[in-house]
TrEMBL record:
One of its GO terms (molecular function) is transaminase activity. One of its GO terms (biological process) is amino acid metabolic process. This is Aminotransferase. The lineage of its organism: Bacteria, Pseudomonadati, Pseudomonadota, Gammaproteobacteria, Lysobacterales. The keyword Transferase applies.
Length: 398
């Protein structure tokens, strides 16, 4: 029997996709399903994006493009960075890829040798563990339970960094929606400054999706000397409602950006011209769609939280960004629903889907089996319906 490479034994298909598939199957069987599972923004970009693509189509060069990204795209991203207060970067600091996921994968390849340690907090975005596994790195998991608002403390970070090659930070967070305040970022940045041998990847793809006037803050602004080892990761997927267009970015020290360019030259060659035009238009054109969506998501966050807070026993830190809520539902463990025993988060999500047609992702997919993730981007009426069913399910537990 011919064998696949050893790394494929470590590669796992996405747990989130598995839930989404189950929900899709039930829907196809005629069940009335409300899906809170996939982290998709559920809106389309403004008309100017489509107009830019039509124009690009008419001017198609038909040629290979730049491995780094077209100049127009690099400049558009530089402007986007400046709007977030990140100045002083040039085209040489930027590289692009097929979405943030591709960029993160390439970064893992570029920065981590087998056995190297990559540290990140739990709950984490599922792909972090999978990418670490594929490249043979060791994940150092830093537990951040609901009791500490799912946030990493400076002391925890300080203890975790010796021996760590890469610290991966995600703010705002998927799956919790938590956002670090300016003071919290400054305190973590002070710790990072004490550990000069650690690369810092900031997966900030939800940086435009912040609520309550909290603002987006980052390590480089807090401690400018960190710029030499901070890598910002960004994407048009969530902010602009363009997950299928597949454009991601890094802003990084030049050698890291150059490493991405080298990888691209061997993997993807370039981002297609039409997609480049769409991304440039999204980044530089009118920002009313993302602005309006952010306000809408904040209202939906309130809608979800109101329901979670009204369920006795459920603990739910208040998210301030992205479009996720991550309640701790462990009070349900040991109970049953219509005779179906609920021993853990997976049982809970399966029973909820079967009984009420509501699909959520079990927290164990994100390393935190006491919780589950609700992605709340579906239409408001559907959200209300799904939340009501969720509350009913809890009320029916015995
Ligand atoms: C934290 C985080 N990083 C990266 C990604 C990947 O985004 P992209 O669609 O740009 O690959 C996601 C997508 O869900 C995410 O939630």
């Amino acid at each position: 029997m011919l064998k696949l490479a050893a790394r494929m034994g470590r590669a796992k298909p996405s747990a989130i996709m598995a839930v989404a598939e189950k929900a899709k199957k039930l829907k196809a069987e005629g069940r009335d399903i409300v899906s809170f599972s996939i982290g998709v923004p559920n809106f389309l970009p403004g008309e100017h994006v489509y107009a830019a693509v039509r124009e690009a189509l008419d001017k198609d060069s038909g040629q290979y493009g730049s491995n780094r990204g077209a100049d127009a795209l690099l400049d558009a991203y530089l402007k986007h960075l400046e709007e977030a207060g990140l100045t002083g970067y040039t085209r040489k600091n930027i590289a692009t890829g097929i979405g943030a996921k591709h960029v993160l994968y390439n970064l893992a390849e570029a920065l981590l040798d087998p056995g190297d340690i990559i540290a990140f907090s739990v709950p984490y975005w599922t792909t972090y563990v999978d990418i670490a596994d594929i490249v043979g790195a060791q994940a150092r998991l830093l537990p951040c339970p609901a009791e500490q608002n799912y946030k990493l403390t400076p002391a925890q970070l300080d203890a975790a960094l010796p021996g760590t090659k890469v610290f991966l930070f995600n703010n705002p967070s998927n799956p919790t929606g938590m956002v670090y305040t300016k003071e919290e970022i400054a305190a973590l940045a002070d710790v990072l400054a004490k550990h000069p041998d650690v690369w810092i990847i900031c997966d900030d793809i939800y940086n435009r999706m912040v609520f309550d006037g909290l603002g987006y803050h980052n390590f480089v602004n807090a401690r400018p000397e960190l710029r030499d080892r901070v890598i910002h990761v960004d994407s048009i997927s969530k902010t602009y409602g363009m997950p299928g267009w597949r454009v991601g970015f890094i802003a990084a020290p030049e050698p890291v950006a150059q490493a991405m360019v080298t990888m691209n030259s061997n993997h993807i060659t370039n981002i297609p011209e039409m997609v480049t035009a769409a991304a440039v238009a999204a980044l530089t054109g009118p920002q009313d769609v993302p602005t309006q969506k952010n306000a809408e998501f904040q209202a939906k966050r309130d809608q979800v939280l109101a329901v979670m807070n009204a369920i006795p026993g459920v603990k739910c830190p208040r998210p301030q960004g992205a479009f996720y809520v991550f309640p701790d539902i462990s009070c349900a463990f040991g109970k049953s629903h219509n005779g179906v025993a609920i021993g853990n988060d997976v049982d809970f999500c399966n029973a909820l889907l079967q009984a009420k047609g509501v699909a959520c992702v079990p927290g164990s997919a994100f390393g935190e089996p006491k919780g589950l993730r609700i992605s709340y981007t579906c239409p408001t009426a559907q959200l209300a319906d799904g939340l009501q069913r969720f509350a009913e399910f809890f009320a029916e537990l015995a």
